[in-house]
Each structure stands twice: as C-alpha cells, then as structure tokens.
C-alpha cells in the first residue's frame, strides 16, 4: 500500500522504510523553534540547569521573540531580555527579535525545508507544511526533551485529503478557502490528523497564499497541514538562496486517507468566521452591515506581501470610515521594507491606516491595538476566541485582507467585490 506525505516524512525521520497511521515512532528533529511566550523562560531554562546538560545541536535551534516585541511594559521587556540572554548563554545564534512573527521568519530565513520534521512551541507551527515539511506545535515539556536529545516520539496521524478545484473567483483569497474548509470540518473535526491540500486551485497558488492555508490547520484540531512539493515550492526556496534538489514530495496514488473532501473553488464567495469560533463561518453577504470599531491586517496568517498588496488595491484612492481604526502590521521586517519600497504602505497610510511594526502583539491582544469592551474587530488573523484580542466583552470576525479593507472603508462588514 502507498503512503501519505506524513507517513513518508515520519518514516524517513525514524529510519524506517515505511510507516502507517497509528504507528508510534521516535523521530529525529531537523529544527526546533521557540518563541518568547513559551520559550526558555517557561521551565526549560530551569530544568536544563537541574539536568546540568547543554542543548543537542545549537545550530538546529531557532528562537524568535515576536509576541512581546516591541515590549509594551517592563514585564514584557524582561521576558525578551531573558530569551535573548539564554540564547547567548547556550550559543544559539539563530535568534531573532523585532523582525516579525516566528512562522514567517522561519520560512524567510531558510529554516524550513521539504521533508523535514520541525517542532515549535506555538500551535501554528503547522504552517511550514506549505513547504512540504511535517511541522507541529508542542509544549514546553516536550521541547525540553527535544533540546536535550534531538528526538521526539510522534504517533503517525491519519490524513484527510482536501481537494480544491477551479479558479478562485474575484473577491476571494486563500483565507476564504481555508475558512470555508474549517467551517465544513469543524474546530475538532481533524483532531490529531494531518490535512493534505491538493487540487489545481492549490497548485496555482503562490506561496504567500499557501502558507495562509496550512497555518490554520490547527483550527480544525489537526496535527499538521501539508501541501505537496512542486515547482512553486522550489522557486520560493531559490529566492532564499536554497538551491538544493528536492523531490516532489506528495502522497502515493494508493495512499489511504481517512476522509476525502472536495470543493469547487468557483462556487466560493467571500466568507467570515463569526464570534467566537473559527468554524462559525458564513458568507459575508449574510452579515453585511455589521458595524465595526477596528480592522486589522497582519499576523503570520494575513500580513504577507500579497495580503498587503491586495488590501492596498481595495483602499487606493479611498479613505477609511470616520471613527474606524485600521491597523496594519506586515508579517516581517523584510515584508515591511518591500511594501515600503513598492509604495504599498504609503497607499495604506493615505487611506488612513496606522502602520505598525512587524509583531504578534495585536493578534492576541498583548499590545499595539487591543480592543475594549463592546468593540468589534474584523481581522485577517487566525483566531477569534473570547478575549483573544483584548476584552472578553468584545467580538472578532475573521476574514481575508481584502474583506478587512472593504470593512474599513464602510465602517461595517462589507462585500469586497464591489471594490475590485
């Protein structure tokens, strides 16, 4: 019997010829990522001292301070300082701060390659599957074991094949596609499974869009989200001076999938996830007119170059509604610089947007744009749980960057197609 992508990657990492769903394997880790929230300050540093050991391979450890940067208070500044000092003490040179959300930095800096096993102390580590890696979030206790041994045990997940066919209609983006998928599967419908996205809709997507899709696999409970490796993958890597020859990793025709879902992209309309669950998805036409207080474009899900470019196309020559806050945080410093050079940030600013530093702060209500009781925000981020972006008495709608931009113009949730 053939193997799925997950089975192939995990078997190779365990030194085995084959693997099947349900197997428990000890696998070698290619990269271990920590952020400032669940990084060395959370029991890891103390336990390493107790064990009196170093780390297994400092070159395979990447630490990124992103949630608390720029720090909003002394407590956050102390956490970032601790993280920085720990990396210095353990010789971890792959340390980044003030340059953007960890997941974007991981792919930009070449720390993600096809066929790798990557673990990280953040649930959206699953994003790296856009480049054909098996990547998943783990807790600090598990990360301690990885730092010492370079290995982790994993149960080989079953795989759900999600096939999207056809061209995306005007006014829709990858965010609409993934929200539609999540609405169908449910927020626990893929628990400890891998989601593998296939079909010509996915094949025709640029990497910016693919990463938005795999980033949100965890919102269905999935262990990993994967997209087969192809020429678009290799071109993206070449742009980062990675010129290795990689196999076009994909599932075998004879592979077993626990479920197969098929969607027609040409039937897709702009959608949004309504409060307070990511799977509470409906077409925007059903909630059009809902008043908002804040619109946010950013994060590791919706702040890449293409996201800001498309938002600027909607906003160019227009002004945001009176009393509305439009915040924009590019997903990395590199994206910030590129958008500035290409005039995208200027167009957004001219429309009334406030351009923020690249940070995770707004996404989970830590700083730079938290929302007050009773306020409504529409956001291109990945979660809309109660209190996620500030007050527990607030509401968050999730939508594509162009839908967020359209809402900012009208001061209420709006169909973006009229602006394209």
UniProtKB/TrEMBL annotation:
Would I find Iron-sulfur among this entry's keywords?
yes
Q: Gene encoding this polypeptide?
A: leuC
Q: Where in this chain does the entry annotate a coiled-coil region?
A: none
Source organism of the structure? Geosporobacter ferrireducens
Q: What is its EC number?
A: 4.2.1.33
| Pathway assigned in UniProt | Amino-acid biosynthesis; L-leucine biosynthesis; L-leucine from 3-methyl-2-oxobutanoate: step 2/4
Keywords, ordered alphabetically? 4Fe-4S, Amino-acid biosynthesis, Branched-chain amino acid biosynthesis, Iron, Iron-sulfur, Leucine biosynthesis, Lyase, Metal-binding
Residues at which [4Fe-4S] cluster binds:
300, 360, 363
Give the protein's function. Catalyzes the isomerization between 2-isopropylmalate and 3-isopropylmalate, via the formation of 2-isopropylmaleate.
The entry sums up its family as follows:
Belongs to the aconitase/IPM isomerase family. LeuC type 2 subfamily.
Q: Which reaction does it catalyse?
A: (2R,3S)-3-isopropylmalate = (2S)-2-isopropylmalate
Q: Note the subunit structure.
A: Heterodimer of LeuC and LeuD.
Q: Name one GO biological process term.
A: L-leucine biosynthetic process
Q: How is the cofactor bound?
A: Binds 1 [4Fe-4S] cluster per subunit.
* Classification via Pfam families: Aconitase (PF00330)
List the Gene3D superfamilies hit by this protein, alphabetically: Aconitase, domain 3
Could you tell me the superkingdom of the organism this chain comes from? Bacteria
| HAMAP family linked to this entry | LeuC_type2 (MF_01027)
Whether Iron-sulfur counts among this entry's keywords is yes
**Name by which UniProt lists this protein:** 3-isopropylmalate dehydratase large subunit
Q: State the needed cofactors, names only.
A: [4Fe-4S] cluster
InterPro entries associated with the record: Acnase/IPM_dHydase_lsu_aba_1/3 (IPR015931), Acoase/IPM_deHydtase_lsu_aba (IPR001030), Aconitase_4Fe-4S_dom (IPR036008), HAcnase/IPMdehydase_lsu_prok (IPR011826), Homoacnase/IPMdehydase_lsu (IPR006251), IPM_dehydratase_rel_enz (IPR050067), IPMI_cat (IPR033941)
